[in-house]
From TrEMBL:
This is peptidylprolyl isomerase. It is an enzyme of class 5 (isomerase). It holds the Pfam family FKBP_C. Residues 1-35 form the signal peptide. It comes from Climacteris rufus (rufous treecreeper). InterPro entries: EF-hand-dom_pair (IPR011992), EF_Hand_1_Ca_BS (IPR018247), EF_hand_dom (IPR002048), PPIase_dom_sf (IPR046357), PPIase_FKBP (IPR052273), PPIase_FKBP_dom (IPR001179).
């Protein structure tokens, strides 16, 4: 649904799991239906700030890893179709902003938002589930959606300079199979999930298939930085 978080610092294991999944890259919260076109007037997200903390830093931007809770309502009758607090044992949701892991309207609505901020946003059908709707999520065709959002954390995303440098052990500004292999082993050890022995090799091959665009056996800073979040 529109979701792919009480105020506390997330455990390192949670961060490791998020970074691993996002590096692959796999969408944590991918919207199952893309928005459909509309007129210019329909392409606008309405944002109402309900609470703004005195300390508003850092502000969210494309490529950041966000942690948030939110409720979703149908504008037509006010009925609730989604509540993140009843999902995943009540844990807030992690997702990368601005890369299509949530519906386009949420990507727009959560830009320039700071930790602790609360917003009420109205999203037109063209920036949500369009003419098709989303039956599984109980969202009818051409539905305008309202979300009440509370943002808990804004972190550097997995495609940031810091993440790249963490993997690039020899500081040569490119990632080798050995470096990424070691990174995967470390992250898998942190999250503690059981995996088939072949999973490591399959994931490693998939990473290079999707990111090594020039086929030279390395992932360059430019190839890695698909979100255009920082300059490497």
């Amino acid at each position: 649904a529109a979701g792919k978080v009480p105020r506390r610092r997330p455990p390192r294991s949670d961060m490791g799991r998020a970074l691993t999944l996002l590096l692959l890259p796999l969408a944590l919260l991918a919207a199952p239906v893309r928005s459909e076109g509309g007129t210019a007037a329909e392409e606008e997200v309405q944002i109402e700030v309900l609470h703004l903390p005195e300390a508003c830093s850092p502000k969210s931007k494309k490529g950041d890893l966000l942690n948030a809770h939110y409720d979703g309502f149908l504008a037509s009758d006010g009925s609730k179709f989604y509540c993140s607090r009843t999902q995943n044992e009540g844990h807030p949701k992690w997702f990368v902003l601005g890369v299509g892991q949530v519906i386009k309207g949420l990507d727009i609505a959560m830009m320039n938002m700071c930790p602790g901020e609360k917003r009420k946003v109205t999203i037109p059908p063209s920036l949500a589930y369009g003419q098709q709707g989303y039956a599984q999520g109980k969202i009818p065709p051409n539905a305008t959606l309202i979300f009440e959002i509370e943002l808990y954390a804004v972190n550097k995303g997995p495609r940031s300079v810091e993440a790249f440098n963490q993997i690039d052990k020899d500081n040569d500004k490119k990632l080798s199979e050995l470096e990424i292999s070691q990174y995967l082993k470390e992250e898998f050890a942190r999250d503690g999930k059981k995996r088939h022995p072949s999973a490591h090799d399959e994931i490693l091959a998939d990473i290079f298939k999707k990111n090594d665009h020039d086929g030279d056996g390395f992932i360059s800073a430019k190839e890695y930085n698909v979100y255009q979040h920082d300059e490497l």
